[in-house]
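EI: anyone free to look at a 229-residue chain?
SC: sure, send it
EI:
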Amino acid sequence: MSRLRTRTAGSRLAIVLTAVIVTTVVVAGGVALATVGINSVGSPQIKNGSITSADIGNGQVKTVDIANGTVNTADIRNDAIRGIDIRNGTVTNADIADGTIGHIDIQDGSVFSGEIADGTIGPVDLEFDLQPRWAKVDFDGTTATLLNGRGVLSATKFTSESVEVEFSYEVWGCGWIATRINPDGFTPVSGEIAVTRHTTDPTVLRVFLFDSAGAFENPGTPFTLQVLC
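SC: here you go
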């Protein structure tokens, strides 16, 4: 009976000791976790590859956190780079693909004569209202026929000695040059030619043909008319 009590007491003591040990471990674990302070975890405590985007707050990654040369095209969202993101003077010709710069990419008034190679600007590069406008007209005193030209709409007989030539823009404020020509293009034509503006329409010029004595000539001859604005 005495041995049974001793064993029972011993078993109770073992259970109590086990509970104390377990309790101590749990408490010790709790104490250890509680002692992790702010800014006390560094790179050595973080497992490689365990930090994801969700673990980083917005705006927390700064320039000093990014190694030079580690950001490439695949890391930048399309259309995310703007003018204010590029340092002045850092973009050179080598950074721009051929044919990618259009007129909408160039600020008004930013290109000067010194930046344009000689002989590279032609009529097609000018705004339409800056291009030379001209007309070649065949006129026999009865019918006026527009043979060809640029910026010209029509040629119409006004009188038996004159033709009205209509352009696509106002031409009253421009310079006018008219020349009588021979249909064959080789033989010089005698006589005179004069240009006046229309009485009311600023897009129309009137061309008058005269003989060498200064009298109105009928029939007329072909002529060219050039407008310089």
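EI: The CA atoms of residues 103 and 111 lie 11 Å apart.
SC: 👍
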